[in-house]
Amino acid sequence: MRKTIQSTGFAAKREIIDGMGGGDARATAESETGLEARLRARRRFLLSALERGRADLADVLAARSDGFADDEHDPEGSTLSSDWSLITGLDGALAAELTDTDDALARLRVGEFGTCRGCRGPIGLARLEARPSAAFCIDCALEMQR
User: Please, what is the Cα angle at 126 between 121 and 128, to 5 degrees?
Assistant: First the structure.
């Protein structure tokens, strides 16, 4: 059984096939508002984590430039090089997630939130609840991984 509903906030019509379209068929302005609140909270967290990580990186770089730091021969702790590598890797992942979050907030502003960038169909509500910054429906996301 196929039902088509028009939500008040999402750009595309929602087609739900007996729960297979991504969860609850009630894609409403209320669910969109909740997702927006989660995106904004995640954005604040990411900015804070990036700031802390960059401060940690500055400490590591300062310690590396110190001529007395011989961490390479310390059997009890991690090396400054591994700390530097870890922090820069995390920084890159956090920055990428911040970009995805900002993109999702931009899609909300222009009325394209919940519309797949691949097929232009709806992104299931369950997927958006699990990953509010999702830009692709599950089918398109799986296709991109192949």
Answer: 65
Q: How far apart are CA 99 and CA 76, in angstroms?
A: 37
Distance CA 101, CA 98 (A): 5
Q: What is the pLDDT of residues 82-112, one digit of tens each?
A: 888 889 999 999 999 999 999 999 999 999 9
Residues with Cβ within 8 Å of residue 140, at least 6 apart in sequence: 116, 117, 118, 119
Instruction: State how far the Cα of 36 lies from the Cα of 43, in Å rounded to an integer.
Output: 10
Q: How far is CA 137 from CA 3, 82, 102, 121, in A?
A: 18, 37, 18, 8
Q: Give the pLDDT score at 73.
A: 54
Q: Tell me the sheet residues that pair with 17.
A: 2
- Rounded Cα distance between 86 and 2, Å, is 48
CA distances in angstroms from 99 to 2, 12, 59, listed in the order given:
35, 23, 26
CA distance 142 to 146: 7
Question: What pLDDT, in 10s, does the model give residues 113-130?
Answer: 999 999 999 999 999 999
